[in-house]
Write a structure and sequence with these properties.
With about 190 residues, the chain is of the alpha+beta class. Helix content is about 10%, strand content about 25%. It has helices spanning about 25-35, 65-70, 180-185; strands at about 10-15, 40, 55, 60, 75, 85-90, 105, 110-115, 125-135, 150-160, 165-170. It has a seven-stranded mixed sheet. Strand 1 (about 10-15), helix 1 and strand 2 form a beta-alpha-beta unit. The radius of gyration is 17 Å and the shape is globular. The protein starts with 11 loop residues before the first strand and ends with a helix. The mean pLDDT is about 95.
């Protein structure tokens, strides 16, 4: 309901998960992706549209998570419902305005793997925060030594069919309990 309001929106905020929309319902989303306006995506948005995503740019079908957001859910990198996540700010991005005032990120959700093992975040993405899986579900639990930190927040630029660049921010944390973290609220 209300998807028609996306046409006049100045920002699209997505917190979707495996939505299947009719051609008529998905049209405003595709039109927005061509608008050059910013996109803000939270947690499961990277697998928000798995079915019926009829969007093509330069003759190539667009994969929403991978192409638009910079990474799609591939697996739980942490132990699902057993680990929690400590956010680690990327040193080289300390001056980024998105990180201004962000000091402590922690959440009970686990880290998502958004690219194949042995690879990295796509080159057109700028990692802002890495997520270190912890060995439990408490703020002060130790890092899981068997799990490397993976990007959990990044920016990129998306260019749709009209050639208009759009700024994209994606954070793979974002469950309700994650937002008890003042650092994550500040980031998002």
């Amino acid at each position: 309901p209300g998807i028609e309001y996306l046409q006049g929106a100045g920002l699209m905020i997505l917190f979707s998960r495996m939505i299947t929309l009719s051609d008529e319902q998905i049209r405003p989303v595709i039109e927005y992706l061509d608008s050059g306006k910013p996109i803000f995506a939270i947690r499961t948005a990277n697998h928000g549209f798995l079915q019926n995503f009829p969007y093509v740019v330069n003759g190539k079908p667009v994969r929403f998570g991978e192409d638009v957001l910079g990474g799609a859910f591939r697996n739980h990198h942490g132990n699902w419902h057993q680990d929690s996540t400590r956010g680690i700010l990327v040193e080289a991005q300390q001056g980024n305005p998105i990180l201004r005032g962000v000091v402590d990120i922690w959440g009970q959700s686990d880290v998502y793997r958004t690219y194949p093992e042995g690879q990295a975040l796509p080159a057109d993405c700028t990692a802002l925060v890495y997520g270190q899986p912890l060995v439990g579900r408490n703020h002060d639990d130790a890092p899981n030594p068997e799990k490397e930190p993976l990007p959990i927040a990044w920016t990129k630029t998306w260019t749709g069919q009209k050639g208009l660049p759009a700024r994209v921010f994606h954070c793979t944390m974002g469950s309700a309990r994650d937002y008890q973290s003042a650092g994550l609220r500040r980031l998002s």
